[in-house]
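pasting for ref
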Amino acid sequence: MIISAAGFGLVVGALLGLVGGGGSILAVPALVYGVGLPLAAAIPTSLVVVGASSAVAVLPRLRSGVNWRLALIIGAAGTVTAYLGAMVNRLLDPKILLVAFAAVMVFAGIRMLMPSAAAGGSCALRGGGVHWRSCLPKAIATGAVVGFLTGLLGVGGGFLIVPALTLVLGLPMALTVGTSLVVIVINSAAGFTAHLGDLQIDWAVTAAFAGAAMVASLIAGRIGTRIPDKILKRGFGILVLVIATYVAVQALLS
């Protein structure tokens, strides 16, 4: 179990380092079907893993690769709704949660395969400024939706934050990756705290998974700057759709 956790951790960390998201959408199914953890333990474990590896992955981008105001606004909005998502999580059957997880994965995969809109808009004006009157409501709404999914499904939200930052808020990809990673750290911490009341976690598995993910995210973050964004997004989108199909089939047949 420890060896398989470390192996999957390398994959999750690499995705976070390359595209600034997508780690947790793979971490939960990897922990359930690959490592053998029950869903109740997989959700908080994935939040620890993704939060820690995202914190490491953002280090090379701290100076010029993060829009800190947007990251904090989106993260703060998500912190509130993460608790609501965790409350709903306790009321639903695990099979329903896994089917919902697969549905969200399909949506994310399709969006990643769609062509990106050109950067620009109220949250990223061409001169580098921000029109906060129109940008702020979009940022708060984005954070609220992502935070709810964080608490409900145990995802850091990067697979939704990345397309939201580029398509809805208009950030260029150079800022999107770093900003997404900061939001993931905030959301993961909030989501994990929301699950403390009924925490089920195997710390040995978590340490192996998180350690491998942090190493991979740091290495992949440096490699990712040399790979075209279009190739990264397309490959990630296809991978997400394949795993979504597997999760849905397993959930419906179980």
